[in-house]
Amino acid sequence: MARLKIEFDGFDQMIKQFEEMEKDLKPAVEKALEASFEAVTPGIKKIIPSHRETGSAEDSLIKTPVVKWNGNVGEVNVGFDLTQDVASQFLIYGAKASATGVPYRAPDMQLWNAIFGSEVKKKVAEIQKEVFERELMK
Q: Of 51, 83, 106, 131, most Cβ neighbours within 10 A?
């Protein structure tokens, strides 16, 4: 599981514009985070079937964006629900061989990039900025 936050160039200036216009920032944050989730999740869905052994990782894929607030900070989880399956983490991060018999597993860089890659981060930042600009114009 990874958490997406609002991160784009000009975010601080946009907050000031919202404040000057006395607009509520929370709906814009929620829409931007939901749009970010929708942009990232298809890339994960596309890659995960190649790892289908038991289907548990695929089943644990978070399918619906849920924005959670901690004070003034909103976040949305993307990727896998670790309460359902932790094996997905070995796919993303890999595993070192251990004396207990856990075999070495290289991280799946396609999966890593689908969640944390620079292209995805750039795409998410563009989407977030577009959402904020739309909300500001309402």
A: 131
| % the chain with pLDDT above 70 | 98
Question: Do 51 and 41 meet the contact criterion of CB atoms below 8 Å apart?
Answer: no
| Residue type at position 12 | D
User: Are 34 and 64 a contacting pair, CB within 8 Å?
Assistant: no
The tokens 């936050």 sit on which residue? Answer: 5
| Cα 95 from Cα 66, distance rounded (Å) | 29
The Cα 78–Cα 88 span in angstroms is: 12
Q: Read off the DSSP letter of residue 69.
A: E
State both tokens at 38. Answer: 């929708």
**Residue for token pair 């607030």:** 69
What does the pLDDT look like over 15-25, one tens digit per residue? 899 899 999 99
Closest CA to 36 of 15, 7, 61, 1: 7
* DSSP for residue 82: T
